[in-house]
Amino acid sequence: MFSFGLYIIGSKIVIRLKRKPRLSSLLMKRDILWALAFLLSSIIYFYIAVFYFIPMLHPSGRYPHWERYGGQKIDINSLISNLKYEIDLKFLYTFLLLAPIMFFPLLDSGFLLLAAPYFAEYLLSRVSLHYIIGYEYPYALIPFNYIAASRGLKKLFPNIKQMPRIVKTKLLGCLLLVSLGSTLLYSPTPFGVFNDPLNFIVTDESWYTPDIRTRALDKIISIIPENASVATQNDILPHMAHRFNVYLDYKEGVDYILVDSHSPWIYGPYLPFCPLPNRKISKELLEKYGILVSIDGIFLFKENYTGAPLNPILIGIINGLKARFYSNMDFDGDPVYTEYILTLDINWAYSSPFITVPNNYFSAIIEGYIYIKEDGNYTFRLKSDDGSNLYIDDILIINGSGPLAIDIEQTMYLSKGYHKIRIEYTEYSGTATIKLEWKTPYKAVYEVIPPKYLFIDLP
Ligand SMILES: [Ca+2]
Known about the structure:
Blueprint: H1 2-18, H2 23-26, H3 30-57, H4 76-84, H5 87-98, H6 109-112, H7 116-123, H8 142-156, H9 165-186, H10 212-222, E1 230-232, E2 246-248, E3 256-260, H11 283-288, E4 289-295, E5 298-303, E6 321-326, E7 337-341, E8 345-349, E9 362-372, E10 376-385, E11 388-392, E12 395-400, E13 406-414, E14 417-427, E15 432-440, E16 443-448, E17 454-455
Helix pairs in contact: 1-3
The structure holds calcium ion.
């Protein structure tokens, strides 16, 4: 409504003022009255919705995204300072919106007023995703942009119908080339230059090849029954959007809770989880839910489940190592927590892997199989705080046990095939970290062993 009001006023008043009538008589015209009615009612609607209805219906009691526009206090100063916030990115954004169609929309700027409220919303935001071309937010503006461009083109070439065919073809060809070129420059591909100044979108091959961890997440989702109710976090929700009973953030009494503790989206206000790196799950939650799956920081909790976490092999995940944690220093008794890990490069900081494991004086056995793809000398490098041991095929290769941090390398000849691997780790106090790297005959630099070479069991 606001857009229509702006559009009518923008297009009609300008035309009529050019013909120089008096402003007072102009205001009496029926379409101008309509425009003013549109503007007024949209402002009233906005005010009532944002300050009364949304706070009444939203659990937080306030408009949920107010902080993007400067918090509760909205005055002219905060609007100006919001507009100035990251002004260089906002300029780039405006330029990139118009460049692919050679700025033709500006020739019919009256029509662009239809998109003005969206545009203002993004320019007044303090969340950079709103004014970076690589995200979904600008797309409300794109249709207006293209219609304005075609209208602008007609203004520029009023006799376009009478133009020779060859001229029209060349004109169209130029436009297509500019559009295609900018599409590549904006795309999340290796050609993308403008897609994302925050480097959120990766530009190597991993953007189209899901890694083992993402595939594991998909497998975990697939074992949740279609009709079960699930609470999850922002970045997992789209993977389950086709389901009926899926909730963003924790909801009392759901059948399942699915979270990825390695993701920044774990910082939800309603999930009963502490921020990383603590990876803490609240004790109250564990009274009602058991861990059905625990793979590399991805947890699937099931209501009233009391068994051990599922072996990932049962749901089609064969890569990784099994880590068992003990609440003592000598791997004694039943493990207090079991997790399947894909990458052995973990920093628990001053905390522990899980709320059931003490922060100090715990131990862990991490084991499985390592696949060697060709015969040769392999150098293993084990770093940990505190001590740890590495066994290959039950032979102690690195002996680093004790209360001190270690960084030990050892080279050994390994034949092609699967070999047993076992790491014993003990944490005394302070920070807790462990990292296992290797150097292979075919890649002579240290790297954390990629999950594709680690196996939970012999295939
Ligand atoms: Ca330590």
